[in-house]
Amino acid sequence: MRRFARCHFLPYCRRDDVPVGAVVYDVSSYGEMPYRTLSPFYVHGGIPVPGMPGTTSDTVEGIWQGLKVIRGETASRLFHGAGRKRGGRKPSGHRHGEKLLGVVEARYKIYRVAYEWVLDNRIDPALIRRFVDIALGGTPQ
């Protein structure tokens, strides 16, 4: 059985602390194509909003911020256009249908579901295959 090489997440502040021999990809909205398509802020369009059948968003970040409940309100306007952060007070949770979820449960039922949908439906499978092939080849990423 082949094993994957270790993959690392490096925050921007640690960009100079890359493991020796690792391949680095900037998957932020500032990264190069096609890597920036992996950013939750990237406008893909048509992403189903978990807990809201028939509703779509342009970005994963728009879903996350739009379903955030602040002062009892969500902000569905954030489903449209480029992903952006929502300011305001500390959220009381995230709306999923009629239920208010805590942040950990929301990550699984909203963010993860939306992001996996993007991976399955909007990201070129060749890009994912490349990551897997490089990891199976023993190169850390």
Query: What's the helical proportion of residues?
Result: 25-40%
* Class computed from helices, strands and strand pairing: alpha+beta
In angstroms, what is the radius of gyration? 17 Å
C-alpha termini separation:
20 Å
Low-confidence stretches: none
Shape: elongated
Sheet-strand content, in percent, reads 5-15%
- The whole-number mean of residue pLDDT values reads 92
Describe the oligomeric state of these chains in a short phrase. Answer: single chain
Spatial strand arrangement across the major sheet? 3-4-5
The number of distinct β-strands equals 5
What does this molecule look like?
- With 141 residues, the protein is of the alpha+beta class.
- The protein is built from three helices and five strands.
- A hairpin with a 2-residue loop joins strand 4 and strand 5.
- Helix 1 runs antiparallel to helix 2.
- The two termini are 20 Å apart.
- The model has no long low-confidence stretch (mean pLDDT 92).
Strands, helices and their partners?
Layout: E1 47-48, E2 56-57, H1 60-66, E3 68-69, E4 93-96, E5 99-101, H2 103-121, H3 125-136
Antiparallel strand pairs: 1-2, 3-4, 4-5
Helix pairs in contact: 1-2
Question: How would you describe this structure in keywords?
Answer:
elongated, two-stranded antiparallel ribbon, 141 residues, 3 helices, alpha+beta
Summarize the structure.
With 141 residues, the protein is of the alpha+beta class.
